[in-house]
Amino acid sequence: MPSALPDGEPVPADGALPASALAGAVSRPLGFYLHVPYCATRCGYCDFNTYTATELRGTGGVLASRDNYAETLTDEVRLARKVLGDDPREVRTVFVGGGTPTLLPAADLVRMLAAIRDEFGLAADAEVTTEANPESVDPAYLATLREGGFNRISFGMQSARQHVLRVLDRTHTPGRPEACVAEARAAGFDHVNLDLIYGTPGESDDDWRASLDAALGAGPDHVSAYALIVEEGTQLARRIRRGEVPMTDDDVHADRYLIAEETLSAAGFDWYEVSNWATSDAGRCLHNELYWRGADWWGAGPGAHSHVGGVRWWNVKHPGAYAAALAAGRSPGAGRELLTDEDRRVERILLELRLREGAPLTLLHETGLAASRRALSDGLLQPAPYEAGHAALTLRGRLLADAVVRDLVD
């Protein structure tokens, strides 16, 4: 969740949505994202809306405290129930992210999930995920989460090499994420993900291969691998600007991606989104697929984004301001936008093209269709899905996904 918020029109004090957003809602999946904005330390590459204890001291008093955060977030879940009215949908996915959600007691995460269950109900096969820092959990913590209804967990591994972790300002030690996978399995988690980052300054091809091998050796059924993006305003960007560490170029990113594809495929993982691989369809992250397919989700927490029926809104960023709004009985929404049909068409192309199944060709205008035919002849799109009416990326197309998207959206 990037720290910068867009502009938009004001959100009503009661958070009410236009009737058009709720029309036909019963036919659309519904998910919840719960943002926990706290971190023990700030990673040098991170541009997310997160806060350390030092950063919060004196800026929100008790309202910004993580001690009562679970109850504050529960207030927004209750607000969501009022806004969505008599919506009969059960919640299909819940994803707790951050920040470091596992800085909160496990019982607090379970309370937050229970609020959704009480207000909306959970589908019988609901996917319930939390992100976790490897150093902030132990077997007892994981057991409490599993008993409380969580069935998927995502550990931030990033790298198996200490010098790479040091550049990223990650605090865990090599080997700990792999141990966490075993502990999660022992606690009964059905699905376990490891997050990796490639392209860190100073990382070699061998370092990246070692990280992939270590991740696979741990036995997850899902791996996410992201190219490092150096965001302006971060500590890492300042270090690169001062010449303390080198910038990784796009060719290196492409090489690392090919290494990931080769290694993960050989281990029985299939890509289903450009940066995500799973051992089976059951292992895919259903919550992220809600985003990629433009379904409905409510994002609760400071800076969290939501989307329901073509209306997108975002909350105030600071935990103190967020808690104060809810305590006063107001929506914490900072702004919103009503997406036009054209907005939604473009977003579908942007997001669905990244999926293995691709984007329907019916979304493309004539210039986009012409671009798709060129992409097909250039080996960027797969012939068989194209004949069936979908623009689906080849491996080479995945390396150039951003450029392909730009051409297809006219």
From TrEMBL:
Keywords: 4Fe-4S, Chaperone, Cytoplasm, Heme, Iron, Iron-sulfur, Metal-binding, S-adenosyl-L-methionine. The keyword Cytoplasm applies. SUPFAM superfamilies: Radical SAM enzymes (SSF102114). Its main location: cytoplasm. PROSITE patterns: RADICAL_SAM. The keyword Iron-sulfur applies. The gene is hemW. InterPro entries: Coproporphyrinogen-III_oxidase, Elp3/MiaA/NifB-like_rSAM, HemW-like, rSAM, rSAM_horseshoe, rSAM_sf. Belongs to the anaerobic coproporphyrinogen-III oxidase family. HemW subfamily. This is Heme chaperone HemW. Residues 24-270 form the Radical SAM core domain.
